[in-house]
């Protein structure tokens, strides 16, 4: 079982000829809205990877549609609270090459209380996964509570904050971050990734694949990416993480879970959208990646 303390956002996509420079006004060629937020994306990915996942989060008075969408995608939504603060949202600019930049409003994601988290985790069992990202309140409390309950703690260090990582670093069993974030963490801590007090670290490298550093096993292994035609990179990292944790939760060895996650991320970048277009397990199994 996966317990995901995660953000829920409305994703507003603006399709542009190029990403705007400072002070530039540019007209969008197309617009659409969908379900997003790193937390929601990871919950949907894990559910579509055939894992049982319960989402811990919050939406505003207008956010019932997001909860309904998560439920439709197979996520347990019993621990998503409705609060008075507006639902979080993201304005996403996507250029013709598929690159993006994103402006976030945290909203209800930062109105999650320790009481909400505690009520959810009281139903967890030792060996379950606790998954978190840096888009909600309550991270330190959840990390401490999860470890006390014997949960395996996976942390996706995005949006990156060295302070946020270091606040929970002694509880983390599996850390997922990209190459830029890994370099920033090494600079801030003065420690190599290999010297951090974390059993397993996955560094995603975009088109160059990813690297698994097993500090517990004192080994490192690189995984090549699957070649695909990139349409939009938004949500690919979240899809990777959701599938990775789902694979581990289902008992896959780390290399097999990483390979599954790599394939899911590769298929995701061929699509436009976020949570609404995350591929399911059968699509990945049926797809020819050669």
Automatic annotation (TrEMBL):
Asked whether the keyword ATP-binding is assigned, the reply is: yes
Q: Which GO terms describe its biological process?
A: D-ribose metabolic process
Q: Which GO terms describe its molecular function?
A: ATP binding; metal ion binding; ribokinase activity
Cross-referenced InterPro entries, in alphabetical order? PfkB_dom (IPR011611), Ribo/fructo_kinase (IPR002139), Ribokinase (IPR011877), Ribokinase-like (IPR029056)
Q: Where is the Carbohydrate kinase PfkB domain?
A: 16-279
Q: Print the keywords alphabetically.
A: ATP-binding, Carbohydrate metabolism, Kinase, Magnesium, Metal-binding, Nucleotide-binding, Potassium, Transferase
Its recorded name reads Ribokinase
